[in-house]
Write a structure and sequence with these properties.
Layout (H helix, E strand, L loop, with lengths): L15 E2 H4 L4 E3 L1 E4 L5 E2 L5 E2 L2 E4 L1 E2 L4 E2 L1 E5 L6 E8 L11 E7 L2 E8 L6 E6 L5 E8 L4 E9 L19 E2 L8 E3 L1 E4 L8 E3 L2 E3 L2 E5 L10 E6 L6 E8 L9 E8 L2 E9 L5 E6 L5 E10 L3 E10 L66 E3 L8 E3 L11 E3 L7 E2 L5 E2 L1 E5 L2 E2 L17 H4 L23 H4 L3 E2 L7 E2 L1 E6 L6 E10 L9 E8 L2 E9 L5 E6 L5 E7 L7 E10 L17 E3 L21 H23 L4 E9 L5 E9 L13 H34 L7 H43 L13 E4 L12 E2 L7
Parallel strand pairs: 46-49
Antiparallel strand pairs: 1-15, 2-9, 3-6, 4-5, 6-15, 7-8, 9-14, 10-13, 10-15, 11-12, 11-14, 16-28, 17-22, 18-21, 19-20, 21-28, 22-27, 23-26, 23-28, 24-25, 24-27, 29-44, 30-38, 31-34, 32-33, 34-44, 35-37, 36-37, 38-43, 39-42, 39-44, 40-41, 40-43, 45-46, 46-47, 47-48
């Protein structure tokens, strides 16, 4: 059953609103809103208890407000948004910053149509708090600005979300907070109805896509969903118009600025039903523009509903949905967008005139569940997906009812009670739910066969972090249009919540090709969609017996993750369930160490002072100092960006042949703009890059130190400026403050970069050949440092670890 969960803390203090308890010590273009004064921020809601900051024109000067907090507060909550004005121009986005004792703690972009954003900032011990507009001509609102002391529980104020939001229809229940070249249809507005496909609709949006003298006649409507809804259902198409037949235009739907749907509609099209995922969306917007001739389009029956997306491998789920005394209730499978999906059953449907109550309308028999039993005696898997590469002569599941049907293992033994998994690459879905079994009805117990998430062909799906969601770790089926499907293999069983541990044996029935290889696949064990064990299987291994705690789960899943497109055939047998809580027991040969992911030492930092190069004064010493300050400031900002590590560290603890522990270290890219996510970096090259950055920092540090003497010389040159000496005296003072801030930033960067360099140097120095396996440019095998201990004693064998 889907539900919203609220955690209630202990007693909380009354909010202290900044606008009520203090005034700024200095400000420009500041306006206070206190008590009942209303602030209308973009998004259609009214807020209180805050202030705005604007800017002046001719010349342009952005506003600011500075408060003295006295170090009394621990955190601050507020709502950031633009003061709404439908007549204002669509200026460039505004940039708003917040500083605590000169350190930047927020840097936000605010656009004309953005919905307000709730923010929480750490101001522990801060004495001076500054709000500043860096860029932009809009009035920016800071609403519900509350201060909280250490030990208090902060609570959000203003416009609380309802605990159980009802489904709503756009325009009827939720009107747009901004529109242009669109107009609303509603019985209480100027336009009462609109006809689409010969049917009148009483609520919706009509979009003007007539030809314009210049441009493409853009239009838009914006709605504030506040993150409350999951699904948007709408009907979009041309309005009925017998006089026009050649018009075309684009309809685009965005969720928080990202396109989630678009198509080109023509006057002759039939309106189409669209169902979209808007989970967590705050700003929903519809955009239109004319592409050929003229036309009007309409978006009607736009309903926001509360539901959850289905995954092919999910166990049965219960839902409670409000239906608001509707006359027609419709269940619709929206599809995946690029492939047909599995069929989903909807059962045990009960409608209530009031609140739901317990009932016994539907009784589902449960088989006898002895305290200890063979898993297969409880029933066949209700999801069983196996590659069609499996030999057609072999079945993939045997229930032990006859000795005439069996898996013949490499050692000649026969297994007549077990199941098989195998991954592959192909398009066919020949083997689906219970493929190859006689009990087709079992598929109705738990779920559908195919469908789920889709990603690019060739993408590798490895193991998952134990405790993570199984579906999030690897898609049931991944397919790219025009490419190859990369298919995982899985089997799911109903364990009825009666058992706490499972023990099973897994063995390789036959390799994918004629020769057995040491290539390793990841096997995940899932209990109610949570990964509870992760191990490795490979074609040359001996049979391995594994024990896994499953914590009274309803669904037990065996998931063979596809990381290399194909795999051998693996048979699972002697699968014993028990109510006893047994410890996790994975044999050494099947252990798979989880990489520990860390980051290099690095903290967010800034100069804290903005330096803009002033006009030249005419004094050589003053202008030389100004130029040197500008260059040092620019280089500091550049190094602040360049010295940020773009990788994460993956440390895998392993066991050597002699039983000692060692580790494999690699670094992987963590910046999608610079390289593809997941790429491994050459550690020696990263060491050289780190060394060069450290040299740049040391040179900059020397240049900054030299600016002390330049400042004295510049001061000596001030008298020759006459009346201009006062103004440039302030410039020199600001320059000196900027240099001090740069020195502090460089000091912090140097310490962190030195620590990073030492870390890389230690790895490179201690890397060695262990058990005959050599380090590579991308993976270093190292002994443990003094005092370093592995996270547990169930380590993967080094010989089973793939060194990249």
């Amino acid at each position: 059953m889907s539900a919203l969960i609220f955690v209630a803390a202990g007693s909380v203090a009354r909010p202290r609103y900044l606008s009520e308890i203090m005034s700024p010590e200095s400000s420009y273009m500041y306006k206070r809103y206190s008590g009942s004064a209303e602030m209308s921020l973009t998004g259609g809601l009214t807020w209180h208890n805050g202030f705005t900051i604007g800017s002046s024109q001719g010349p342009y000067k952005p506003g600011f407000a500075t408060f003295r907090l006295g170090g009394e507060y621990g955190c601050m909550l507020f709502v950031l948004g633009r003061i709404y004005d439908s007549e204002s121009l669509d200026y460039e986005p505004a940039i708003v910053t917040v500083y605590a004792d000169g350190k930047k703690i927020a840097d936000e972009v605010v656009r004309k149509y953005d919905v307000p954003k709730r923010m929480k900032l750490d101001i522990a011990g801060a004495d001076r708090l500054e709000f500043r507009i860096v860029k932009g001509e809009d009035d920016i609102g800071f609403a519900e600005v509350s201060l909280w002391k250490e030990g208090e529980t902060p609570v959000e104020t203003g416009n609380p979300l309802p605990e159980s939001p009802e489904p709503v229809e756009l325009v009827r229940d939720l009107k747009p907070y901004a529109q242009y070249n669109h107009f609303c249809v509603s019985p209480d507005m100027e336009y009462k109805t609109v006809r689409v496909n010969g049917k009148e609709h009483h609520y919706g949006i009509v979009c003007n896509m007539n030809m314009a003298f210049i441009g493409v006649q853009p239009g838009a409507s914006y709605f504030n969903l506040r993150g409350q809804y999951e699904t948007l259902s709408l009907l979009a198409g041309p309005t009925d118009n017998a006089k026009s037949s050649g018009g075309k235009g684009w309809i685009t739907v965005k969720a928080d600025g990202k396109i989630i749907y678009e198509y080109e509609v023509s006057q002759t099209d039939i309106a189409r039903r669209v169902v979209l995922d808007v989970s967590g969306c705050s700003q929903l917007s519809f955009h239109t523009e004319q592409s050929e001739q003229s036309m009007y389009a309409a978006i009607v029956d736009a309903r926001l509903i509360l539901e959850a997306p289905m995954m092919a491998t999910y166990p049965n789920q219960d839902f409670i949905l409000p239906i608001g005394k509707c006359r027609k209730l419709r269940f619709e499978n929206g599809g995946s967008g690029n492939l047909n999906v599995g069929a989903y059953g909807i059962a045990d449907v009960v409608v209530y005139r009031g609140e739901p109550v317990e009932n016994d309308l539907f009784v589902h028999p449960v088989p006898e569940c002895p305290y200890e039993t063979d898993l297969i005696d409880l029933g066949a898997p209700y999801i069983h997906y196996v590659s069609t590469k499996a030999d057609a002569r072999d079945q993939i599941f045997y229930d032990g009812s006859t000795q005439r049907r069996y898996f013949e293992m490499p050692d000649g033994s026969r297994i007549n009670k077990g199941f098989m998994l195998q991954t592959s690459v192909h398009f066919s879905l020949d083997h689906g739910v219970l493929s190859g079994t006689d009990n087709a009805a079992a598929g109705a117990i738990g779920g559908a066969a195919v469908g789920s998430a889709f990603v690019a062909a060739g993408a590798a799906v490895g193991g998952a972090v134990v405790g993570s969601t199984l579906i999030g770790a690897a898609a049931f089926l991944m397919l790219a249009a025009g490419g190859n499907a990369i298919e995982n293999s899985c089997a799911a069983f109903n364990t009825y919540g009666r058992y706490n541990s499972v023990t099973f044996t897994v063995a390789c029935l036959r390799p994918f090709s004629g020769e057995r290889t040491d290539y390793k696949e990841t096997l995940l064990i899932g209990a109610d969609q949570k990964v509870v064990a992760e191990l490795t299987v490979y074609e040359t291994m001996e049979p391995q017996t594994v024990t896994v705690p499953i914590n009274g789960c309803e669904q037990l899943m065996f998931w063979l993750a596809n990381t290399n497109n194909t795999s051998g055939q693996y048979v699972f047998y002697d699968i014993r369930l028990t109510g006893d809580v047994l410890p996790l027991d994975i044999p050494k040969a099947a252990r798979l160490s989880e990489s520990i992911v860390t980051e290099p030492v690095w903290t967010e930092k800034s100069v804290g002072i903005q330096w803009e190069r002033p006009a030249f004064s005419g004094s050589q010493s003053v202008d030389s100092y100004i130029s040197d300050c500008t260059g040092a400031y620019s280089e500091t900002l550049k190094l602040l960006e360049d010295t940020r590590p773009v990788y994460k560290i993956y440390t895998t603890y392993l066991e050597t042949g002699s039983g000692e522990a060692c580790k494999a270290v690699s670094i992987r890219i963590d910046d999608e703009e610079r390289l593809n996510d997941g790429d491994y970096l050459d550690i020696s090259q990263e060491y050289q890059a780190c060394l060069e950055e450290l040299q740049r920092l040391r040179k900059l540090d020397a240049d900054l130190a030299g600016l002390g003497l330049s400042y004295v010389n510049a001061g000596l040159g001030l008298p020759e400026l006459g009346l201009g000496a006062i103004a440039y005296g302030r410039v020199l003072k600001t320059g000196r403050q900027t240099v001090k801030a740069c020195i502090e930033a460089v000091k912090e960067m140097t310490a962190e970069k030195q620590a990073e360099l030492s870390m890389l140097e230690t790895w490179l120095r201690t890397a060695s050949v262990i058990d005959g396996i050599s380090s590579t440019r991308y993976t270093l095998l190292c002994p443990l440092a003094p005092g370093e201990t592995p996270p547990d004693d169930m380590l993967q064998l080094l010989v089973n670890f793939d060194v990249r």
